[in-house]
Specification:
By secondary structure, the protein is an all-alpha fold. The protein is built from 30 helices and four strands. The strands form two sheets. A two-stranded antiparallel ribbon has the order 1-2. Strands 3-4 form a two-stranded antiparallel ribbon. A hairpin with a 2-residue loop joins strand 1 and strand 2. The chain is elongated and about 85 Å long. The termini are far apart.
Amino acid sequence: MKISRVIVLQWFCCISVFAIVLGGMNIAQAAKKGSKSSVNFKWRITSENFEEIKAKAQAGDPDYQILLGEAYLNGRCVKADREEGHKWIKLALAENAKDPIGLYHLGVIYEYDLKDELAAQKYFSSALGGIRKLANRGNPRAQFILGVMYSVGRGVEEDRVESDVWIKKAADQEHPGAQFFMGVFLQSKDLKGAMDLFEKSAKQGNLSAIQQLAAFYFNGYIGDKSIVDYEKCFYWSQKHAEYESSWGFFRLAELYMNDNVIRSGLNMKLEELRLFYQGIELGEEYELATSQIEYIDGIWGLFLPVKLKWRGVKDVMINRDLDALVTRFIEGEKAGMGDLSRGLFDKALKDDPNYLYMNNYWLRFSVEAELPFSLVSEILIAVYPHKKDSFDFWFDYAHNANIAGQSYLALKAVKGMREVISKTEDEELVKEMSDIAAILEANALIGMDREKEAYVLLFEHGKLENDTKILVNYINSWAKLLLKDKKKLAFATGISESLWTGEYYRSENTQSFHDIETGELINPPKTTYKEEKKDLQPTVPTAYEEKTAVGEAKKEDSKDDK
């Protein structure tokens, strides 16, 4: 993998977006007498000191205001936010209008964001003298900026030799942006040396260096020798994604695609799905991501649970140590050593129940490993206090209760789903959630031998018109009781019978599952649901029953009036 000089120059021109932390001294103190700048200014910004730097910026220190502005402009230890970056740079210049580094960044804003080249060059020219003085005094932050200015002609004539001199000076003082560029310039001659520089820069949080390392470890070469190292690629890709970067999520998803990198299996397909989805949710389009989501969902019908659970979540949430612990537990169960391995599951559940919940371990337990469904309901019980007001939680409970054959418990979960819907104001979201609730409720009704009510309920609900492809894939794969009468299903949902390609399936083996409200483990019923139906109906009225009851009440009121 190689990066051309043209690409490097484009990188310089784009912004300081990848300039990362531009290091230094007390700038404003030297530039303006009486400013509020700190005597002990620390220019390195990290995840550990970010809040401290933000507090000092908010207190009015112009040095830290510029540093914070750079962080937002570059996505350094915080999600990139150009407007927020502009705000802090301008606040610093309001305190010290002659701050050279502040003037330089204002020039970048005019060049990159406002597309005003004339104004940008004016600010670059105004900044040049002060930046040169600071650079000559040994300020690595100013040295790097001066190198960039010479590289692309910001306020000066382009001078490649002069640019290299200043960038090297900054790199020798461990400036992360300068280290990255020295690595880029060196890689055609000494890739190993370049990789060392990239790693030094990446360890300081330089996103460009992090991305470069991940890319090299995925498919790179030093001469004819491959340097592919999927573990290191995974590590740096995860670091990149932690900065809410679409690229990092996409690279992680691609690693999950490769069975030689990550253990294969259905649960890993779900991880691949959610990582691609998160990358797209962050605002980037990627053809492979879109095609893989469609492909996997077409086979497994898994995108619905992924979308419900991960929508709006920007956390990478990968814990490979916990994954290994759970894998060890599953291996022990399969080996018939459950008395020993059960402790591993208990430890994982105690350490981070939310992780097991978010990463859909029900697939590995119940579907892949064919372990008792009660393990799944234990996870749900553990997160219930924190998740009970979320739609995705009740969906997960209803979904798994249906698969376990505990249709009665699934109906109780649908009630929880409808309570969440009643508190939701977004009309589009209400329609989407209502469609899903109707599907799960109808599926549970058929599981209780109430087939007629199920299809009537779907008909009364109305046509499924939102995300129909996703809903069809889900029903074909997981809500298979609804496929008992495809003609009725097509009529009730308004979706062509030809799209119902799955096959009706009803397991003969109902499994134990916890009642979410009482925590009681409900064992498989000894009698049929048809025999128990009279006792169950009053406890959990369906939407169909509620509507019928209202109609009957109106008739009685009408008789009384007469």
